[in-house]
Structure formats: structure tokens, C-alpha cells
User: What shape does this take?
Amino acid sequence: MRAGYPIFDLRDVALGYNDRFVVETGRVEFECGGLYLFTGPNGCGKTTLLRAMNGFIKPLRGKIYFDGKDIFELTDLVPPRRRMTYLAQKPVLFRTTVLGNVMFGLRVRGMRKPEAARAAAAALEKVGLGGMAGRNARTLSGGEAQLTALARALVLEPEVLLLDEPTGNVDVGNTDRIESLIKEACDGSGITIVLSTHNAGFAERLGGTVMRLENGRLIPGV
Amino acid sequence: MGYLGTSFSEALALIAAADPDVISAVGTSVYVSVCSIIAAAVIGIPLGYLMATRVFPGKAIVTTLLQTLMALPTVVVGLIGYALFTHNGPLGPLGLLYTPVAMIAGETILILPVVTSLSLSATSSINAEVRETALTLGAKPLQAAGAVMREGRFAYMTALAAGFGRAIGEVGIAMMLGGNIRGATRTMTTAIALETSKGEFALGLALGMILLTVALAVNVFIRSLQARSGEAGE
Assistant: This one.
């Protein structure tokens, strides 16, 4: 994907539950290789917006285009979801080892087990969890779980990374580590990152295009 | 007490001597129950998964109906099966009445609501985010279903064990669709009923002891699964 191409295009999207609007976006484009941050207090609709971009919440109004296609017009959401990865605020880890969790996305794409294990091990090294590959994922601390989920997302080398409050449940040390991993992903790989955070300091340190969610409206370029 | 003691000793002797009638009844019981549980698993687990993960009109009614069918009387299934498989019934030309196939069909119908309903509960108890997480990581719907089932594997196995326990202990279907034919369709339960009515209390008691042992083994299996499931934080 060339830089500057709008990989995501939100056209007057209105999201909500039971016909009650939670978020209205207006027209917003997300260019390839960019870093975009949704900021705003808890409960303002950041998660709703990210989940909609990942195809889980259908807009009450408007369209969400991914690479030129309205994702809710697609009969099969697997191809776009294999190009983007969503990381939830409280990531769910499967009942298996840390390595098994990181291998999951590679295995469902048809990668053979030895190659997937090698790639997953390298991803765990990258996030600083190299020594935890064989551990039961359910025994990890909040920060370790978040890093495992980040490794699970990064190993897939997605074109777009949707991160929901990636430092919401982690301590200061792991926040720094996650921050540097996000910066590294932005700088080196041309990946488009859209993340939400209520932490103004974190948003400021990351840079990128900040969009504030205020009174149910997305205000770009704040 | 003397009569009971003598019968108990004779029963132990029959088991120790591997009495052919005992072996045959045990074999038929296990064979029919295992085949039934396999058939019920193939149908009931995916059905339970779909019912838990899909929204459709009348879902609450269907779920209640399914739970009600868990208490389906075995003689009612036997009666319906008999009507279907009897010479003049719609499936009569197949000649399956009084064969293990008819018994397997009947017992599958009996335990299908048990397996489906417990699979539905198992799927519902698994965090819905497991499926969503799998999908966000690029899984196809079937692969996401596989991820959910791996998460709830102990609960699904409990559902199968419960179904097996119900199948191996029932008597109505085995009697009405199997006909209690010696060496062919005689199960532990039908043999117990027959031998006791003939006054062969020792043989009935021997079969009863084996049946209880099988039931105990199934329960120990269920409890160990539940313990593992609890330890694993499910």
C-alpha cells in the first residue's frame, strides 16, 4: 500500500445501540502508514468505533470503507480481517501456552507448525517475553497478557493495527515497553496504527494525528 | 440376609468366570451406548454451538423445549421408535427392528437433547470474546468455532459423559427396539429385568454390579473433568 492512500475511510458513520447514537464521525480518512489516536474519557465510544472498523458493529448510518470497499457490504469479512488486527483493551488469551496464543493467527492462515512456532518465538523475544513461551497464558499478569496479545497481533504483520487502550491495564514499566513497540512498528514497517487512549500524556508522547471524541462526535486534527 | 449373601457370592463368581451371557450383555450395552454417544456428539455439539452463538426467533422457546426433552421418558422414545421400525411402519422395509441399529437410533434420540443442551450451556459459559478474538486474528467461522470448542473441551466432554451415562442405564428403548434377544440385543439393563423375573437373581445382581461400576466410572470421569476445568479457571 502506498503512503497517503486512505486505507480506511469513514463516511458520516453513526454508531450506537438500540437506535441511540453513541458516536458520529463525519468524514474521516486514515492514510497508509499513519498513526491515529482516538482520545477521550472512558465510555465516550472509542471501543465502539474501533470494533466497528474491525467489522463487529454495523453503523446505524454511514459507511466504513476499508481499501475502497464498504466492509459491511462484503459477504466474507475474513480477507479484510486478515489485513488488520484488533487488540482489545482486555485481551482474551486462549487456554494454551503463551507460544500457542501467538501462533494462533499464523496457524489459521495455514502456516505450518514449525514455521509458526519460530515466528511466534521471535515475536515473543521482540516484546520481551522470550522466556515465557511455554507458560500457561492464563497465569500471566495484566501487563504480560497485554504484551502477549501485542506479540500475537504484530506477528501477523498486518497492514492496519487497531489498538484499544493498549496501556489501559498495565504498569508503568510495561507501558514504556508497549509505547516503544508501537513507535517501532510505526517507524519501520509502514503499518497504519489506529489506537484509542484516555491517557493524554501517552498520546502526546506517541505523536500522530489525534482525534478527540467529545459529546459523541469525533473531532479530527485536535 | 443369607439369600442376599449367597446371591452376591454367585454374582462375583459369574463375573470372575467371565460368564458368556454376562460378557455378551456388557458388550452389547457398551457397543450401543458408544455408537449412540458418537452419533449424538456429531449432531448435538455443533447444534448446541449454533444455538448458543446465533440469534433467531423463538430461541428461548426452543431452548426451554430442549431442556424439557432432557427428561424424555425412554419408553416414549421406544414407542415412537417401534412405530417407525415395525413391519408396517415407515422404516419397516429396512428390517431394523430388534437390531442394535434400531437401539442405537433410539438411544441417540434419547441422549441428543442432553448432549445438545449441555453443549449449549458449555458454549454459553465460554466468554463470547473468545470467538471474537479468534475472528479478529483472521480465523474463518469454522476455525473460530474450533477455538471456542478447544476452550470448552472439558465441558463438552462432560456433556458426552452425561449422555453416555443416560444411554447405558436406560431399559425402555433397549427392550422395545432391541427385543432383548440373547447374544444379539440383550443389554445389561434388559438382562437384569429378565433374569430377575426368572428368579436368576445372581445373574441379575452380577450385571447390576457391572452396570454400577460403569456408572461410577463415568461419574468419576465427569468429576475429574470438572476438577480439571475448575483448576484451569473455566
